[in-house]
Fold these 2 entries.
Entry 1:
Amino acid sequence: MTAAAVILAAGTSSRTAPFHKLLAQDHEGCPMLLRTVREVMKSQAGQIIVILGPENTPETPELKALLLPFRNHRFSIVHAPHEQRSLSASLRLGVFHATPLPVSCLLVVLADMPLVTAEIMDQMIERHALEHADSVTPFCNGQKGNPVLWDRTLFPALMTLNGDKGARDLLKRHDLRHSQIQAGPEVLTDFDTPDRLELFRTL
């Protein structure tokens, strides 16, 4: 079995409203969502699921249009209902669609962290294959970063999550086998405020 990746991109982007952060462009004119997706596509993940917001929200058609060229047997787009746009709800939706797939693990990628490279994702996938850990997390200077990789045996637990904090509580469980890789500041760097978007436009 191989790895799947889910890219969580269904958030409302309230901190940068009315502008949606995932449409912000870097110095080469590449939108943030597209830059994130391109890196995941370069990784070893065999199946990629992008969770977008509801189809009838203003920003969704533009975001979806960025992704249509990627759609194939390896890549799919899922729309979250209005009531399921929190981080945990989007994650549950991704796990739901990954569960029937012949994959051994799920890499959970945040769409507003476009500096994370395919090389980092591949290190995590390879560490999971080597150690059969329940989770693999990148660390930078002692801090946990993103993305996080989960073994498929944790899919049922991920499906029980609620709220807007993702799966952090699962990372605290001492009965699980947690592994980690060392990475640079890109695993801690997101872009979710107007000031951060201005920085992204220079990168």
Entry 2:
Amino acid sequence: MKDLFFQDFSPMLLSEAFNPFTSKSYLYEMKYDGIRALLFVSSKSFKIMSRNHQDMTLLFPELKEIQSLVSDKVIFDGEIVSFKEHKPSFLELQKRLHIKKSPRIMEMANTHPVVFVCFDILYEKKSLVKKSLIDRKKTLNKYKNTSFFFKASIFDDGIKLFQKVKKLELEGIVAKKKDSLYEINERTSDWIKIKNLQREEFYILGYSYHENTPFVSLYLGEERENTFYFVGKVSVSKKKILSVLKKMPKRKKSCFQDFRDQSVIYLSPKYRSLIEFLEKSSNGKLRHPVFLNLVDFD
């Protein structure tokens, strides 16, 4: 069998739950709002791979300092994270993702450095994936925290941790079975993410769809100082909502202050929908919106 250190594989993925819980069979970690990555590190080599097999080594040159921590071949699993005001910020991290030119990358590495938050180790001289999570954590603990590498903290009460995360307005928590093996290329119920989601009502100010697709896109807006602004769109099943949308009063022109699209069927600002989302970006757009239900519709 080919040595794991030289294989191209995806990291173990998580299932999802909606309510936090506490169990002696699990340990709990904060969920950092970053980019999942595997670090392949040795004294002679360093490579950063995304969960989708993209080589990101050149994007984050500051993380190469992690190479000084190892004396042999190691694979770390974790998140690349940017911090703003001492809190993880995916919006801050996005500033780093679209830069392609080396001088600018190096400049941003100095002015907006990232951190690798490590929560697992899959390899140290040999594969560790058949060892339990607790045993892998013991191996990981041998590596010291630095300014660019630190180990995720472990908690034993998932409910209390989730309450803390909500208070701090962080992304959520992860529950992991203590005896779980590392399942490469798999999504497993041994690791469970519980997101700290927000809910808010937004106006449905337009929709669009294609006959050969099962979904309708709703165009959402919010009112600020008597003006409607576009906050994003969300997909909903045609069967669930199209007949209802067709009953809503139409408009010839968009009532969005900042959005126009000829393919959209525009609606009067009369009806709203309840949307669940992770956060709003700095320009007011919703991240990961999910439609829950209609509001104010007879």
